[in-house]
Design goal:
GO terms for molecular function: 3 iron, 4 sulfur cluster binding; electron transfer activity; iron ion binding. The chain is an alpha+beta fold and about 60 residues long. The chain contains 2 helices and 4 strands; from the N terminus they run βαββαβ. The N and C termini lie close together (about 5 Å). The chain binds iron/sulfur cluster (SF4).
Length: about 60
């Protein structure tokens, strides 16, 4: 499943990177998915990072 980060919601807390640095990074102050990992949404750790994002900026879907 595809992971997306909405830069309109993200405020750059970096929590997603702290939780899962193999998938998330920060670009220009906003959370982003490391290229090549966009379809890693089936990983339970990705789902947890999405749930724990303080601004609900991470979406995991088709
Ligand atoms: S946890 Fe959420 S608010 Fe924080 S950097 Fe990641 S996407 Fe942005």
């Amino acid at each position: 499943m595809r992971i997306t980060v909405d830069p309109g919601l993200c405020y750059g807390s970096g929590e997603c990177v702290y939780r899962l640095p193999s998938v998330f990074t920060v670009v220009d102050g906003f959370g982003a998915v490391i290229p090549g990992h966009e379809n890693a949404g089936d990983d339970p750790e990705v789902r947890e990072a999405a749930e724990k994002c303080p601004s609900q900026a991470i979406t995991v879907g088709e």
